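chain and backbone:
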Amino acid sequence: MRPARQTAREVICRGRGGAVASRETICDDVGAMIIEYAFDRPISVDAFADVLRRSTLGERRPLEDRACLEAMLGHANLLCTAWADGLLVGVARSVTDFAYCCYLSDLAVDERHQRRGIGRELIRLTQSRLGPRAKLILLAAPKAVDYYPRLGFERHPSAWTIAADRPLA
């Protein structure tokens, strides 16, 4: 009897311009598939909106506001992606200084591809682009609150947010 899931990862680093960073063959009860992970591979606003929609993250993102989605992509300076047969199935979108902190603002994986290690690999790839002193920071979506501690993230008790249009007290 074979394990429920087997993976084989081939690490490839070809530099800039949308190069494949790694390739993983996932064999599980759904079948075998090749997932290619990339950093610095541009994606369209339509592809970004589509993967957000196919993940649970789309519920909390402005999918109807194309200009906002364009700005979200345009101002992110670290984008790691996962592809299956040319379809974007996962994205980790971050804003970072690469030395001290990295805000992982979106981690979205197509619901049909979740629980296969794609989110974990996107985070690992994001970490691999950062300097040794950098910390990854994120705000968990309600449905993902229990996911991050399993990966080794520590809860931080003093994070704060305020909307840009809300006046300071």
Notes: The chain has one domain: 5-138. The CA atoms of residues 120 and 151 lie 7 Å apart. The first helix runs from residue 45 to 54. The beta strands are 5-11, 20-28, 31-39, 78-84, 87-96, 101-109, 135-137.
